[in-house]
Amino acid sequence: MIHFVYPDLFIHSDPKYFVEREILTLTNEYVNAINANIMIQFPGEVVEYLSADTVEEADNQWPLEFLNSLTIGGLPPHKLLLKLGIPIVLLCNIQPSSDLCNGTRLVYHFF
User: Fold this and answer.
1) I need a labelling partner for 16 at 20 to 30 A (CA). Which of 7, 53, 95, 109 fits?
2) Total structural domains in the chain?
3) Domain range spanning residue 36?
């Protein structure tokens, strides 16, 4: 399916190529599997971003390893893996006045 929707994935660097295509799935488990497969095939070096490792409560009753292993709503744990030029979709409203809303498609261009 990936090769059908994104033929010649390796040679396209134009963001419009990715904006015009998408793969829809029924569950986040499928999304995670497809994203991992595309990430492997996509050219470039992987950059890893981690979530903040803090807890609001004063007494840290949960070990960080446990907190980092949680998946909420089927979303992946606290790790975000990106490659230069890879398309991403916002999952929350960051700044609606600047059109950074849920569902906005972007392309990663920062190292």
Assistant:
1) 95
2) 1
3) 2-83
